[in-house]
Amino acid sequence: MTETAIHPPSEIIIGIDLGTTNSMSAYVYPDGAALVQNEFRNTFTPSVVAYTPASVLTGYQATVVAPQFPDTTFYSFKRFMGRSLKDVQEDLSRLPFTVSEGQNSTVIFSAGQKYISPEELSAEILKRIKTDTEQILGNPVKKAVITVPAYFDDAQRQATKNAAFLAGFEPVRIINEPTAAAIAYGLDHQHKGKILVYDLGGGTFDVSVLELKGKIFRVLSTSGNTRLGGDDFDYIIASDIKAQFEMQTGSPFSENPAARGYVKREAEQIKIELSASNAVAKIITDPLTGGEFIYKLTAEQLTILLSDKIEQTIQCRHYVCGYCGCGIGRGSTRIPAVRKRIEELFGKPPHTRINPDQVVAVGAAVLGHLLAGGRRDFVLMDVIPLSLGIETIGGSFSKLIMKNSSIPAKATEYYSTSVDNQTAINIDIYQGEREMVRDCRLLGKIKLSGIPPMPAGFPRLQVAFMVDNNGILTVSAVEERSGKSAHIEIIPEHGLSPQAVRKMIEDSIFTAEKDFHARNLADYRVKADMMVRGYGKIKDSIKNLKTAAEFSAIEQAVDAVRRVKDGDNPDLIRTAMDEMGRLTAEVTDEVMSLNITQALKYTF
Fold first, then answer.
1. Does the keyword 4Fe-4S apply (predicted)?
2. Which end of the chain has fewer CB atoms < 10 Å from its terminal CB, N or C?
């Protein structure tokens, strides 16, 4: 991306990759695009939210307290957005926290007496990203382009928009993740031709084909599975851990929340380690019984364990193979077995020169820059992942807008009645590819009332579908002989109503000061505890580097943090941490340098 290609926008619109496992944001500046770093100097924020008696923790802080609060630390909630409880039954048994059914068949999570929707949990992550981005840019950020899996249906896209509103963002565009990746790839390399984007993320899988031609980015085809991703790989490894545990110890692995959370974290770490090594051996301890064994797994064994899931992703190729030119990948495509299988299938290795974990956020930021009045050197044409239509007589699915139609899209069709003297017509709106609505997904309903009694077949009912640039569906219907009409922006049968979203926003404004205080207090407590524990690991080294008086001053500062870290005054905790940080910053660097020097001696 060259400097001349970027023009100052009239406002800031950032790009956000709201991920199942990690989330991140990016922005465009005069020299190109950059990822936002958080307070831990990472460009990613774990998509984890923990509810503790004191406050709500997000990101890295939530992962720290997860072992202490296993049944109120939530993760992978992106997979539940826009879903009904019936949709996610097979996922429930492996979760350490409680999932139940709310109003309109929504999925809700329980934290004591509090009930939280997946949208609210995603909003907590978006709030964290908003805060981090505003600190980096030094300006308020109110608008964002947010990415979703290409195979997210209308309900899931609407849920993503609701999460953004709850976090204080205006979601100016909801864009498919592989499309965002292709934007970053194409603009960075001036690539022309067809690109296969194989996107195996933490919770979802997409495969899309895009054509880059001049200044036009056109999505040709997309397929995928919103319930297949790295999480599923983790659970396969976790199941193997449990099986091996029982074989070697003679006892089953515990199934309480703490044990489920523990084995999931260990499985994920094993998966990550096997992406860079050929074998791993870890001590696995049952948190409840204390039983333990050494779990061993090789990269070859992992390939066998994951083979069925990997082949499920490859099966999508028949939708897109005719368009394939070259490929790029991200997320769980870091797993060597996945990359090897892609190379076998397409005869060339996947393109991974661009950081696969960052490319989606960067592409979204570039599009945000365009929408804000910046660069004008490309046109984006995305597609609809699944066909849209209505139920007709006999339970048939009448498709108005077909899968892979370019968006925005509009279609109109005429229908009539099959019963004499109908005074009302119910229109049930579905999404899917099957011929009968029982095999498709119900999105919403319109009821046309007050129609004068007429013979069957006489009413002339016009139904119009409109899909906007975000992939959000609006449906209108009019009975032309009587003039009766109805109009609806689809609110999923199992989604949050506009009234519920508004109330959540109003509640957040009313409690903003209280929530800010509680969040700061919780954050400072976690940081202070980390500082004290970190100091304990290098205390002896520091003592050898400082005079008695200097070491005494440091010890007093550490004791001050210990005294206040569990208190209720965030200002006292922050002041104590600042003093401890001031006294230990220089000596910490010295200890690190000394350790590196010692390591080099043994290396050479």
1. no
2. C
Q: Domain 512-603 has what CATH class?
A: mainly alpha
Q: 169 in helix, strand or coil?
A: coil
Predicted TM-score (pTM) of the model is 0.74
Query: Could you tell me the CATH superfamily of domain 384-496?
Result: Substrate Binding Domain Of DNAk; Chain A, domain 1 (2.60.34.10)
Q: How far apart are CA 36 and CA 112, in angstroms?
A: 34
Angle subtended by helix axes 118-137 and 154-166, to nearest 10: 50
Name the packing angle between helices 177-189 and 359-371 (round to 10°).
80
Catalytic residues: 17, 78, 177, 199
Residue range 549-567, pLDDT digits in tens: 888 888 999 999 999 988 8
Calculate the CA dihedral of residues 590, 596, 597, 600 and round it to 10 degrees.
180
Query: What is the distance between the alpha carbons of residues 460 and 272, in angstroms, rounded to a whole number?
Result: 59
Exposure string for 111-146, b = 16+ CB within 10 A, e = fewer: beeeebbbbbbbbbbbbbbbbbbbebeeeebebbbb
Give the dihedral sign, CA 271/277/281/287: negative
Cα R_g (the chain), whole angstroms: 27
What's the rounded Cα separation, in Å, for the pair 231 and 313? 14
What whole-number distance in Å separates Cα of residue 362 and Cα of residue 364?
Answer: 5
